Amino acid sequence: MKINELNKSTPVFSLEIFPPKKTAPIDTIYNTLNELSDVSPDFISVTFGAGGSVSNNTMISIASTIKDKYKIESVAHMPCIYLTRDDAEHMLDELKANGIENILALRGDVNPDIPPVYQFRHASDLVEFIGEYGGFNVIGACYPETHLEAASAAEDIKNLKYKVDCGCNELISQLFFDNNVFYSFLEKCEIAGINVPVEAGIMPVTNKRQIERMTRMCGAKLPEKFRRVLDRYEFNDEALRDAGIAYAIDQITDLMANGVSGVHLYTMNNPYVAKRIYAAVKNILKA
Ligand code: FAD
């Protein structure tokens, strides 16, 4: 089913997982999915590195198993910066043959060691291409704190509006830790005439170094309140994990109270954390 056709009387709750590295057995991801069985997401999205750290067959096989075995809708991530138009068409053929109906259309990050192909310069080029191919629900990425390469926040919103007009039915946001930043971004989208649902990306922090690396890569700011938590518990793994879970629950509760369209949880393939968060917010999501 296309996720834009889901019954959205309640906010969407989705999970993101990533495929195991080429060197790891694929079964590790199925162990993760088995452990997630008491979490009930509307869909699970499967990442796919633009630089090709896993094969697209692995990603497609995981996305199709999520649908067929776990009976959960899946979304395939599709970065395009290293794809030719023939590659993209072949990948769409494979996705279609495997019954996958939802694609998160992405540009992907440039690997400094691999020159881009540049047949698709922006995600919007891929969104148009998928629209011409037909038969898929297309989702796009967005950046509440502005994409790092954008000339300005206003330019980024203008480019986002263009991407949505090319055929995105919804958006999933980059992670953020300050809900006010997200609310202000939603206002800017509304003013720009971007009227599709925007799912809020939430990353539970369980490790100080991991989050410092992520925020460096994506530009998300750490609010003072959150930084104090990281500083206080950085050498106590269990306390930091519990504080990170509590912070994510607090963020989701506030987002729900403010009527957002949905929450996309970056699970980092950690079922324990996803289960604890889901247990704490499931009644809030359904209310
Ligand atoms: P775009 O929408 O193309 O935007 C990239 C930059 O180009 C922005 O600065 C934008 O303002 C600018 N731009 C866009 N259109 C134009 C235009 N027409 N003219 C001029 N400038 C323009 N990466 C992966 O490799 N694999 C994944 O699985 C993955 N999953 C992700 C999931 C989510 C929810 C998010 C938020 C990101 C994910 N990424 C993933 C990272 C993403 O690929 C990078 O952030 C990348 O740098 C931008 O991708 P995009 O699709 O947002 O690009």
Would you mind describing this structure in some detail?
- It contains 10 helices and 8 strands.
- By secondary structure, it is α/β, with parallel strands linked by helices.
- The protein has one domain (3-286): TIM Barrel (Alpha-Beta Barrel), CATH 3.20.20.
- It is globular and about 50 Å long.
- The two termini are 24 Å apart.
- The relative contact order is 0.14.
- Bound molecules: flavin-adenine dinucleotide.
- Flavin-adenine dinucleotide binds at residues 47-50, 77, 79, 104, 106-109, 122-124, 141, 147, 149-150, 155-156, 159, 162-163, 172, 174, 201.
Features:
TIM Barrel; binds flavin-adenine dinucleotide; globular; alpha/beta; 15% strand; 8 strands; 287 residues; eight-stranded parallel β-barrel
- Share of β-strand residues: 15-25%
At the fold tier of CATH, the topology name is TIM Barrel
Q: What pattern of helices and strands is seen along the backbone?
A: EHEHEHEHEHEHEHHHEH
The biggest beta sheet is recorded as:
8 strands, parallel, barrel
The share of residues in helices is 40-55%
What molecules are bound to this protein? Answer: flavin-adenine dinucleotide
Oligomer: single chain
How large is the count of helical segments? Answer: 10
- Placed side by side, the strands forming the largest sheet appear as 1-2-3-4-5-6-7-8
| Architecture per CATH nomenclature, i.e. the level-2 architecture | Alpha-Beta Barrel
Q: Radius of gyration in whole Å, from Cα? A: 18 Å
Would you tell me the structural class of the helices and strands? Answer: alpha/beta
CATH class: Alpha Beta
Q: Give the end-to-end Cα distance, rounded to a whole number of Å.
A: 24 Å
Unreliable stretches, pLDDT < 50, 5 or more residues?
A: none
Shape verdict: globular
Q: Could you tell me the number of beta strands? A: 8
Count of folded domains = 1
